[in-house]
Amino acid sequence: MTEIATPMRKHEKYDRLIAAAQKQPALATAVAHPCDETSLRGALEAADAKLIKPILIGPKDKIRSVAQSFSLDLGGFEVIDVPHSQAAAEKAVELIRTGKAELLMKGSLHTDELLAEVVKRETGIRTGRRISHVFVMDVPGHPHTLFVTDAAVNIAPDLMAKRDIIQNAIDLFAGLGLGTPKVAILSAVETVTTSIPSTIEAAALCKMADRGQITGAELDGPLAFDNAISLEAARIKGIKSKVAGQAQILVVPDLEAGNMLAKNLTFLSQADAAGIVLGARVPIILTSRADNVRTRMASCAVAVLLRHSQLKQPIRA
Question: Where are the beta strands (DSSP E) in the chain?
Answer without folding.
Answer: 27-32, 52-58, 79-81, 103-106, 132-138, 146-149, 182-186, 218-223, 249-251, 272-278, 284-286
